[in-house]
Design brief:
single chain; 339 residues; alpha/beta; Four Helix Bundle (Hemerythrin (Met), subunit A); Rossmann fold; 2 domains; 13 helices; 48% helix; binds guanosine-5'-triphosphate; binds magnesium ion
Length: 339
């Protein structure tokens, strides 16, 4: 069964005891979508593209010196050394193939090659045997719980019955924070209490989701440092327990990365990927960071696509990642700079 996450759906008799506080009017929101994305990328654009465009629009000759200047800008914008070198290698090849000589023609090639690097869009879809299970992980404060709240709200709005498991039993306040999000999102919360064993809370939650015929179960986990081996082992255990309780689970392993951390977050991500293989990445806090270049590096360095981006703290500030829109927003010309 395939339940589309973003197109409407019927409510299938779900009780709606807590309507999201941020109610949206779909049409105007769609209109504003690109502007919101564009404005949330302002700092990254200033750091990265404005410099790049300045370099490319002066009609310079394409030569090694120019290529190296571009590389420097990309690295400074948190695209990372490895990804920058790969990207620019591809740019050089395309320039050669097309016999380009003037720098004004480079912007298009760079955009194309960024899109190649990002790969196909891979939005989160609910498919397979229900309940569809999503395990959410990441370092402390990355934005896991907030992203879960936003996601739960979207699923609920689209007519899916949503359960959320409070797998973060580490901090007393964690369950309460999740409970508030669940109430806003119209999702049911399965909790085990402070200091309960996370894997056993999650095991119970998978069974509850099956018994209640939920469409989706989202599992919150405590933030953890990638260097803490026992905590990483605990994550592996949660993943295993989910698989024992429900075939194919976890269907999605969503790593939440704080966009303001930049390149360091990728190092952490690689270790999470070893504990539980990641199927997708959500990058949060892209609003207000100049380090958005990290988005370009995720697929190339982790092998998992960026599926979601967070551009604010509100319920509707979560977007499907769409490569073309992202690149267009990143390279958008600032209208305000004209006068
Ligand atoms: N500006 C902005 N803030 C965000 C975004 N996503 C999350 N935050 C904020 O980041 C802070 C941490 O978010 P949480 O969701 O609690 O993070 P967490 O990963 O669950 O944290 P722990 O459970 O403590 O590991 C909160 O203040 C959120 O409001 C985003 O996309 N943009
Ligand atoms: Mg949390």
């Amino acid at each position: 069964m395939l339940r589309n996450l973003f197109k409407g759906g019927n409510k299938k008799g779900i009780e709606q005891d807590a309507a999201p506080e941020v109610e949206q009017d779909a049409a105007p929101q769609k209109e504003n979508w690109f502007d919101r994305l564009k404005s949330s990328l302002t700092k990254t654009r200033n750091r990265f593209i404005s410099q790049l465009s300045g370099l490319l629009r002066v009609g310079r000759k394409i030569d090694e010196e120019l290529m190296e200047e571009i590389e420097e800008i990309l690295i400074q914008a948190d695209v990372g050394v490895e990804t920058t070198l790969t990207l620019m290698e591809n740019v050089r090849e395309t320039v050669k193939e097309r016999g380009l000589g003037d720098s004004s023609e480079l912007e298009t090639v760079i955009k194309e090659e960024i899109l190649n690097l990002l790969g196909e869009d891979a939005p989160l879809k609910l498919e397979g045997e229900s309940p569809y299970t999503i395990l959410v992980l990441g370092v402390n404060g990355a934005g896991k719980t907030t992203t879960i709240g936003k996601l739960a709200s979207r699923f609920n709005t689209n007519g899916n019955r949503v359960l959320v498991a409070a797998g973060d039993t580490f901090r007393a306040a964690a369950e309460d924070q999740l409970a508030i999000w669940c109430e806003r999102a119209g999702a049911e919360l399965i909790r085990g209490g402070e200091k309960a064993e996370p894997a056993s809370v999650v095991f119970d939650a998978v069974h509850a989701a099956k018994n209640r015929e939920a469409d989706v179960l989202i599992v919150d986990t405590a933030g953890r440092l990638h260097t803490k081996k026992p905590l990483m082992d605990e994550l592996s255990k949660i993943g295993r327990v989910m698989g024992q309780a429900h075939s194919g689970a976890p269907h999605e392993v969503l790593l939440v990365i704080d966009g303001t951390v930049g390149q360091n977050a990728l190092m952490q991500a690689k270790i999470f990927n070893e504990a539980v293989p990641i199927t997708g990445v959500a990058i949060t806090k892209l609003d207000g960071t100049a380090k958005g270049g990290i988005v370009l590096a995720v697929k190339a360095e982790l092998g998992a696509p960026v599926k979601l981006i967070g551009i604010g703290e509100k319920l509707d500030d979560l977007r499907d990642f769409a490569g073309t829109d992202f690149v267009e927003a990143l390279f958008a010309v600032e209208e305000t700079a004209e006068t």
